[in-house]
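Render this sequence as a predicted structure.
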Amino acid sequence: MNNKKYFMGIDTGTNSSKGVIIDQECNIIATASAEHAMTNPKPGHYEHDADEDWWGDFCRISNKLIADSGVDPHDILAVGASALGADCLPVDEECRPLRKAILYGIDSRATREMADLTELYGEEQIKKWYGRPLCSSDVMPKILWIKNNEPEVYARAHKFITASTFITAKLTGEYVVDRFLGLASFNPLYNSDGTPNPELCKPICRPDQLSAIKEANDIAGTVTAKAAAETGLAEGTPVITGTDDSGAEAISIGVVAPGKMMIQFGSSIYMILGTKELVDDDRLWREEFIVPGLCDISAGTNAAGSLTKWYRDNLFPDALAIEKDGGPDAYQTMMEGVEQIAPGSDGLITLPYFAGERTPINDPLACGCLLGLTLAHTRAHLYRSALESVAYSVNQQIRIMEAHDNVDIDQIFAVGGGVQNPHWMQIVADVTGKEINTPLVTIGASFGDAMMAATAVKYPGFEDFAALTKFIKPGCTFYPNPEAHEQYKAFQVVYDKLYPATVELMHALAKQ
C-alpha cells in the first residue's frame, strides 16, 4: 500500500452523501456514506442545513474513508467534491451560512421573481440567454427572492454560492464555481469568459458576491490547516473546483463525447446527453458541458427516488417495519407482486409531479395525479404505476431530444440508487424501447469526483477526460421487450395528454 497513490471524491445529494477513495488504477479502496434530510417548511420550499448536511457530511465521510482504508492522508494526491447544483446559499465573510440553503429546481418559491425578471428583460432576451424560459433551476430568481423577502439576510451576504462552492470554500478558503454549473445556473450574471457582468448583476447582486469561474478539474486551492483538522486530510492537499452531482456522475460513466447519455436515478431524475453543439428547445436545458468542447442537453424529473420513498413511508409501512426488524430492504418487499402486473398497471396512469415539475413542462404548480383508478387496483398496482410514470417522463424527454436533427443517442447509462431495482430498469427499457446499461461501479458522482481529481494533477493515465473511459467497466444491460414496448406506446399517449388536460385544474387547486 505504501507505494500506491490515491484520490478522494465525495458527493452530496438530496438525501445522502457518498464518498470513495480510489487508487491510481481506479480500484475502489474504501467507500462511506451519510444520510441527511431536506426540510420542506412551506409548500414549494425545500432546504438543507449547509453546515450540518453539506460540510458535516463531508467531514464525517472523509474521516471514515481514511480510517477504514488505512491510507496515509499524505498519499491522497488530490480531492474532488460535487454536490447538488443550482441551489442558493448566502454566506458571510467567514463562510458562515446566513440561512438554510434554497435547493435546486424542486424549490419553486421564486415564481414571482421569475415573472418579474421575464418582464424586466423580455421573453426574447431570456430565450437568448437560456434557450428556454426561466425556471426553478435558475439561481438568479432565488437570489432575487432573498432580496425581496429577507432583506436583512441579503444585506449581510458576502457571497451567494452553491453547495459545491461551499464545500470547496470550507476546504480551501477559495470561492470558485465550475464553468458548467456557473455559466448555466447563474446565467446571465457571468460573461461568456467567466467574469461577472456588472450591468446584468445590478438588479440582482454585486459582482463581487459571485464566485470565480474555473474548470471543474482545475485546482482551486489546497486543504487549509483548519480543514485538515476537521476532515483528516493532509494540509496542503490539492482540491479541485468540483461541480454539481449530476455532472460528476455523468463523468463517472463516460459522458465525454456526443451521443453518450446518463440517466441519474436519484431523489429526482437528471438526464445529460452529450451533443456537438448547443441545442435550443423551450422544454429542455442546454449548456456547455464539463468536458472542454462538448455541449449537452439536460432534463430533470422532480420525483423519482423521492416518489418511491413517499410510497414506502405512506403506503408500505409494513415493508419498512420488516426492514427495521432485520428483514429485507423495504424497497425489495414493495416489489412483491409488482412484476406480475401487466404493462400499464391494468389501466392506471400516474403523473409523478408530486413536487411540481421541471422539464418538459416547467411548472412548479403541477401536482401528482392518478388516472384510471378502480376498486380492482391494489397498492402493488399503484406502486408499479409510479415506477412506470418515471419511465414515461424519461421517454417523453428522450423523444424531444431525438426530434432534433443534429442529436443522436448512441448509448444510455442509468446510474444512481434506482439502478438497484432491476425491474424498474426493465420498465424503463420497455417504455423507451432502448437498451439501458448500468456501470460496474455504481457508487456514482463521488467516483467521478475522484477521477477528475486525478486528471487535475495529471497523474499518469489520467491526462484528460477522454482517458477516463478506459477505467469505466460495464455492468448489466437491460434489453427492451418488443411486446411490452408496443403495449406501453398506447399508455405513453395517455400520459402525454394527461398534463395538458388537467393543468388548469392543477393551478386552480394550487390557488385554494
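Summary. The chain is about 40% helix and 20% strand. The mean pLDDT is 95.
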